[in-house]
Write a structure and sequence with these properties.
Keywords: Membrane, Transmembrane, Transmembrane helix. The chain has helices at about 10-35, 40-50, 55-85, 90-105, 110-120, 130-150, 160-180, 185-215, 220, 225-250, 255-280, 290-295, 305-325, 330-340. With about 350 residues, the protein is an all-alpha fold. It folds into two domains: about 10-150, no CATH class; about 160-344, Methane Monooxygenase Hydroxylase, Chain G, domain 1 (Up-down Bundle), CATH 1.20.58. α5 (about 110-120) crosses α6 (about 130-150), α7 (about 160-180) packs parallel to α10 (about 225-250) and α8 (about 185-215) packs antiparallel against α10.
């Protein structure tokens, strides 16, 4: 069964639209306060720099500032050469050629070419040095506004998205266990499910990285559950692949035992996924959640096969740790996860 990876919600799209509009509006107000002669560049910069994540916004802002400073400096040199008697076309190309080479080497500097073209092809009626200086000031204003808006206005709710993805990934892990135990799918299909789980895990890790940038305080201090989420999920994914290999190579001989085992594991994983759904909604799981989830996990005495008893001990240990982890019982469970048999 394919894993349904959550896409961007309508709320996310609306929040991003609002943030871009706020950035443009604040840039216009700041441009008026600074009495910029060509405020359009500040507004354009704010619109371009403001991205859906703080990380992307910072990266775009750095590129804009770097390009504006390099282009501004190159423009001042080219204009000075023109003032000294060099023809305008020659002065322009004397700046464009080295900047093109620099942009090919360091793509984040490519906006320097734009600054030079604006300064040389659209000169001001005032001082010839006015346009590049104004361009740099406008870019700085737009970037600063974009950064402030990204941190202060409806920034992406990374915790919610991380746990929504975690729920989808855990249900995918359940599909791996169920398919391998019943031999409904082959190893190729199991690997495809594992690849999809890995995609979820990468997106979760990206959300956790974004959450680290949202505040100055350490994520481990303000939200230890979110900080430890990728490692805990990776452990369950590894356990699932160990189970799948064993199930395909050496299935449980007693059909009744196999049914009970798989039904219990998939049920427990569904309970874990529901716990992640609750966390995504900003709620703690219900009081009876831990008891019901733990009760669903089969014990290793369900089978006499030593290899399956070992695998079940691993799964029970890590699933128990994850269930306690979702109820926020603290460092004990994270230590339990990292110290499970599968980690050794």
């Amino acid at each position: 069964m394919p894993i349904a990876i959550p896409e961007r919600s309508a709320g996310t799209i609306v929040r991003q639209a609002i943030r871009v509009l706020v950035a443009i509006g604040v840039s216009e107000i700041l441009s008026q306060l600074l009495r910029l002669q060509d405020p359009a560049w500040a507004l354009i910069t704010a619109a371009v720099v403001t991205q859906t994540t703080i990380g992307e916004t910072v990266s775009n802002g750095q590129s804009q500032i770097l390009g504006a400073l390099i282009g501004g400096a190159a423009s001042l040199i080219a204009i000075s050469l023109h003032q000294l008697g060099l023809p305008g076309e020659a002065a322009l190309w004397s700046a464009l050629i080295p900047l093109a080479a620099l942009a090919a080497w360091r793509p984040q500097t490519r906006l320097g070419l734009v600054t030079v073209l604006i300064a040389m092809l659209f000169p001001s009626d005032n001082s010839p040095f006015f346009v590049p200086i104004q361009r740099v000031i406008c870019v700085l204003a737009g970037v600063i506004v974009s950064m402030v808006v990204s941190f202060a206005v409806l920034h992406e709710q990374t915790r919610r998205d991380a746990f929504r993805l975690a729920a989808a990934m855990i249900r995918g892990i359940g599909s791996i266990l169920d398919g391998a135990a019943h031999h409904n799918i082959g190893w190729h299909d199991i690997q495809s499910l594992d690849d999809t789980c890995a995609t979820c895990l990468r997106r979760i890790a990206a959300n956790v990285g974004e959450a680290r940038r949202e505040r100055w305080t350490s994520l481990e201090k303000r939200d230890p559950m979110l900080a430890a989420l990728p490692q805990a999920l990776q452990q369950l994914q590894t356990d699932a692949m160990v189970f799948a290999r064993a199930a395909l190579a050496s299935p449980v001989h007693d059909a009744q035992d196999a049914q009970t085992l798989v039904r219990g594991l998939v049920s427990a994983l569904e309970q874990i996924a529901r716990g992640c759904d609750e966390q995504a909604q900003g709620r703690q799981p219900a009081d009876d959640y831990t008891r019901e989830a733990l009760a669903a996990i089969p014990h290793d005495d369900i089978t006499a096969a030593p290899e399956w008893r070992f695998i079940l001990r691993i799964l029970r240990s890590d699933m128990t740790a994850f269930i306690s982890f979702l109820t926020d019982t603290g460092d004990k469970n994270r230590n339990s996860t990292s110290g499970s048999p599968a980690s050794a």
